[in-house]
Amino acid sequence: MVDQISLMANTHRWTIKHYADEIDETLNSWKAKLPGTGSTVEMQQAKEKGLIIKTMIEQLGADVTYKEIKDLDRKQKLKLAIACKIPMDELEATFNSFQQMDIMHRILRYRKGQGTALPTDEVGLKMAMQTDGMKVMTREEKADMKKMFEQHQKNQLKRAA
User: What distance lies between CA 145 and its chain's CA centroid?
Assistant: First the structure.
């Protein structure tokens, strides 16, 4: 994890290829090789997301950033969903995951630029996101985050009922 955080903090531009590499790292980690873990929901989701990202790279190129993906019009997104053989809501969920990684990248770059210590574990990463997230996110991203959080809360309530 420290290596991944360092890579993000030292990478000037976060591309979809970097995101694909992160997914591959998850799929090829030692934890994924333990008996029974390959079939967990998280691993299946990572495999599916990896296939979607691979198709996106084929369609858009490896150097595309989240900002460029965000600027795609509806027709381009529809063509991409068809190429990926997934519904639009799955494509949007993949975009949202990529956006989260992009924000995390900017937070780590911000912390490095400020001379603030980089996190070394998942707890520290969450704290950094809470502490510095609002400093690097745009107004639109903050609104999107609020909507995603509200949707997540609704989904949690539905599951509990």
Answer: 13
> How is 52-108 classified by DSSP, letter by letter?
HHHHHHHHH-TT-BHHHHHT--HHHHHHHHHHHTS-HHHHHHHHHHHHHHHHHHHHH
- pTM for the full predicted model: 0.79
Tokens representing 25 are 């790292």
Contact 21, 54 (CB under 8 A): no
Helix count and strand count (H, E) for the chain: 8, 0
Residue type, 36: G
Average pLDDT score over the chain:
87
Q: Which of 152, 24, 11, 41 is nearest to 93 (CA)?
A: 152
Paired tokens of 34:
């333990």
Percent of the chain with pLDDT over 90: 45
Opening angle at CA 87, ends 102 and 158, nearest 5 = 80
- The count of C-alpha atoms lying within 13 angstroms of the C-alpha of 64, restricted to the half-sphere facing its C-beta, is 21
How far apart, in Å, are the Cα atoms of 54 and each of 2, 24, 85, 96?
25, 10, 12, 16
Q: What is the pLDDT of residues 35-73, one digit of tens each?
A: 666 567 877 888 888 899 999 999 999 999 999 999 999
